[in-house]
Amino acid sequence: MDRLVNDVRYALRTLVKNPGFTLAAVLTLALGIGANTAVFSVVNGVLLRPLPYPEPERLVYLGWQYGGQGANQTVTAFKYAYVREHSRVFEGVSTERTWTTEIGEGQGQDEVRGVRATADFFRVNGIQPALGRAFLEEEVRPGAPHVVVLSDGVWRNRFDADRGVLGRTVRLGGVPHTVVGVLPPGVDFPETAGFADFVVPFVFEPDPRDKGQNYIVRARLRPGISLEQAEADLRAVSVQFREAHPDLMEEGEIGFALLDYEDIFVRGLARTLWILLGAVGFVLLIACVNVANLMLARATGRAREIAVRAAIGAGRGRIVRQLLTESVVLAVIAAVLGLILAEWSLRGLLALAPAGLPRMDEIGLDWRVLGFTLALALATGIAFGLAAAFYAFRADAAAVLRDGARQTGSVRRRRVRSAFAAAEAALAVVLLTGAGLLITSFFKLRGEDSGFEPDGVLAVRFGRVPPEYAATARVRLFEDAVLDRIRRIPGVVAAEAASELPLQGQYNFPMTVVGRPEATRGDVQWRSVGPDYFETLHIPLLRGRAFTASDAGAAPPVVIISETFARKYFPDTDPIGRRIDIGTFEGKEVIPGFDDPEREIVGVVGDVRALGLDRAPVETMYIPRAQAPDAFDMGLLSAIAVRVDPDAGSPLTLAPAVLDAIRDVEPGMPLPRFSTMAEVIGRSVAQERFNTVLLTAFAALALALTAIGIYGIVAYTARQRTGEIAIRVALGARRDDVLRLVLRQGMSPVVLGLCAGLAAAAALTRLMTGLLYGVTPTDPLTFATVPAALAAVAALATWIPARRAATVDPMKALRQE
Length: 817
Hints:
Elements: H1 2-17, H2 19-48, E1 59-66, E2 70-72, E3 74-75, H3 77-86, E4 90-94, E5 96-103, E6 110-117, H4 121-125, E7 131-132, E8 147-150, H5 152-159, E9 169-172, E10 175-182, E11 198-201, E12 215-221, H6 227-244, E13 253-259, H7 261-265, H8 270-301, H9 303-311, H10 316-352, H11 367-394, H12 397-403, H13 411-446, E14 457-461, H14 472-487, E15 492-498, E16 508-513, E17 520-529, H15 533-537, E18 541-544, E19 558-562, H16 563-569, E20 579-582, E21 584-585, E22 588-589, E23 598-605, E24 620-624, E25 639-644, H17 655-665, E26 673-676, H18 677-684, H19 686-720, H20 722-730, H21 735-764, H22 780-806, H23 810-816
């Protein structure tokens, strides 16, 4: 320990005596370690932490397998009920939905977020109420009394942690619920609401005619059951299902499938995060190459010192230990600074992260991250120390003592530095190519025509509304009154209501073309909209007419279809005047309670990318708001679009006036959420923006480090060859010849690195296929632009020291030599 302490003290004194070298090495390493630590913090929080459930290895998802097309993550309600009843390998099978509503009544109402769950929900999650009980099987059946299990927070905040809360009544959405239990503290459900203020029974009656794939199913394996046994059981259940319900199996369907729980839990982000961690690892490698070059130059400069030590009796082990200590101390200092940079950059990284990033509250610097950073520091420090020791001992001690600095420019070491330059160029090419592909992909995605004009539109979205708004007529009275007031607000150009606005939600209904039983589809986009909806969003009317105020409940039922709908089902005929039956599939009514008559097609409108800019427009049917079915829990009061005059500024400036208009009509209406449609589009591509910004930042950092590294290598090599260049000039070499010589020798390894980097990029960018849109992993333009840009940067970094070498005064240089 005494020797180690002495070595550390000597290392610190040595580093302090060389502030330029120390600062450059520490900052370079700190950037690489800090970036790696920040990204690893996200990977650790999202992917590496244990799932927040007891025995998470027993948790699985159940999906529906299609031959050659993978598995769907959702199933129908009937399939959920079937697998729950017939499977024998699961301790529990559950499904759930999130529910945002109001708790309390009158002025004491607060918005809360909870979960509607089936009876096995608590068993699957491995949670037992801290007070009271979970649901009983009979409480999830139609007509059962309303019960609720409260969260620990709601119990403490609204009921002062009163243990007598069991049996009391609390109103949720205006409906009284009996409290039967209280959750333990600290329980959350990251897959559903992120946290839950309450859990209520999810009551529904599975109907085999309902083909809506709307239910995510989770299950917990029985103790001792392996995944292989579970898969075998699901295959047997699938055979039983096919035999019992052949009419519910379509061509190509296989049956129930076991899905990887963790992959779905992190919403398919595993590959993205590992790719980003690999990319930032390349940044660290480039930083390491730069520091290795600095260490090599320093070891070369210290060759005489090491030779003297060896000459007076210092053993190789003693010298190696000292060099290792110096490099490890340097790396540890860089790691400490890197942790500070990581903490700072992590905040920016999380600010950029899409809202759907799971377990965001668990991302931070914990013991795993600290261990990762320490391991990075030790690994880099040991590598540098060994490299410095290797080159120190390769030198001839007698020659070093005799010739001094002239030994420092050996051909071997110039080759090593050339290899460093080639490695940096190759690594930078891979990163820049990946960033270039994502940038191209992102701009192609943002350049897609959404089908409507989002600029200048304010989106007003309602949550769960009071129960008296179950009837279409009551909803329209409220909407007409609110819209009348909104349209009179200065700066408002148009306003209209809809069941959902684009990119904010979807409803899929089955549909059959009347008179053509073969023209049927189980899931077609359905939206109910007001008469001015298309005008408000600037969706073009291609044929026929738009809705009018006369398309009310007593008027003939009408529908407007999208261009894709018309092209698919009426490719050779005019759809105007034809009829469709919404809610039927293959001639059967499949949605209980949805009593919708046959509707005449009166118009065709342009396609809207309502499900995402990266998804092609789908068949969509629009019905008038005034003709929406009654007594159907579709959240009829859902959204209002308000188009604002461009001269009025941001649409959000009118939000207070819109809120006043709503309060004037219905003071007890829950507070709606306001956003601009431009923000809605931005949120729809948040994941793509996150990937692009992050990889571009890493690529920019890599480019800067590469340029600095190449400059340092060429400048150092040119400086070591000052005497040779002076002799060349003295013997008649022109300055242009010297400039070309240094440029050629500086760029040769860079060109080799570019070629190697392009080959590596062609292989590695294939891993990004799932992240790209509208561009292939081997996009020719990107693969041509990246090396050209990097070559230009490298040429500039090489030209500066080459120009300095070409202007050397031979007399001064030879005199110093």
